[in-house]
Amino acid sequence: MSNDNVLQFAHPEGYTGIKKEFVHDPWQDLYAARQNRTILQGIPTQIEEHTLSENKILTVVIMMHGVKLLLPFSETCLKDTKLNENRNRLRKLIGRNIAYIVIGIDRESNLAIISRKAAKEKMAKTFWKNAKLNKIVPAVAQEVHFNNVLVDLGGVEVMIPAAEISHGWVHDARQIIKIGDAFDVKITYINKDKEDIQVSIKELLPSPYPDCLKRYNKGNEYLGTVSGIADFGIFINLEPGVDAIIPHLSKRKVKLGDNILIKIRDIKANEKKIYGTGIRVI
Question: Which UniProt key words apply to this protein (predicted)?
């Protein structure tokens, strides 16, 4: 049967039969994702209260081609506390790319219910199955604090202390890593039975030791930069990954970035530590 509204043309040059669609119906994808428990990813852009199963629930919302994907607080993997605190916790998810599984669909209301918790549990099973000591795995920073970084390894979260970020002194991890940063880490300890794991960034970086010790000698003086200030002393960076420790100066307070001439008084090669004395601030 002919259709007067459809004109017949020869196929354009390069035509493969695959056409770009400018309007996408998400429902087929959502039903398939729910049936197969497919792990999807999206970015929450809203915080809303919704009534689900006759209960008013705080949710974050991911938009998918006009459909609201609701992530209830109970499915976020966040610790449940007071309502106002929960809202603050949800704000940390806004703008971040998160994994989720579709667990419910309400097409009449143009809504779907999703679970980050279910996605992370599924990802964690795969991770523990494949994880091995000394294996290099991808990580994404979830939280960055002064002394440590919380990373996600694929459903498994682990804290990396500042000492495992660099061979040199790390004064503030927030100056090196930002939330959402992706990088490789090395598994340095694993106990699958207890689901306990430790990872390191430092182990993947070339160590300046012991080669750097050829460049420094006890009794000689060297110019360095203040890289950290602690109760027990001052860290002086001599080169990338190499910091000497000196006592606090008695007559002057120093700040990060100050240049100080120091005299090396001891080198402990086995401990990868250099001890010195401050001569003067340059």
Answer: Ribonucleoprotein, Ribosomal protein
Rounded CA separation 274/245 (Å)? 6
C-alpha distances in Å from residue 42, one per residue of 19, 96, 99, 139, 222? 25, 8, 7, 18, 51
DSSP-derived secondary structure for 239-252: ETTEEEEEPPPSS-
Task: Tally DSSP H helices, then E strands, for the chain.
Answer: 3, 16
Residue 5, judged by CB atoms within 10 A of its CB (0-12, 13-18, 19+), counts as exposed
Tokens 């499915």 sit at which residue?
Answer: 75
211-281 sits in which CATH class? mainly beta
Say whether pLDDT at 279 is over 90.
yes
CA distances from 12 to 2, 3, 20, 222 (A): 21, 21, 14, 72
The kind and range of the H/E element at 124 are helix 116-130
Compute CA distances 9 → 6, 12, 189, whole Å.
9, 8, 65
**Multiple choice CATH, 131-203, 3.30.160.270, 2.40.50.140, 2.40.50.690, 2.60.120.200:** 2.40.50.140
| CA angle in degrees (0–180, nearest 5) for 230-233-238 | 100
Of 42, 57, 58, the C-alpha closest to 91 is 58
Segment 197-256, tens digit of pLDDT: 999 999 999 999 999 999 999 999 999 999 999 999 999 999 999 999 999 998 889 999
CA–CA dist 255, 171 (Å, integer): 12
Residue 194 burial by CB count (10 A; 0-12/13-18/19+): exposed, middle or buried?
A: exposed
Q: Which secondary structure element, helix H or strand E, spans residue 185, and what is its range?
A: strand 182-191
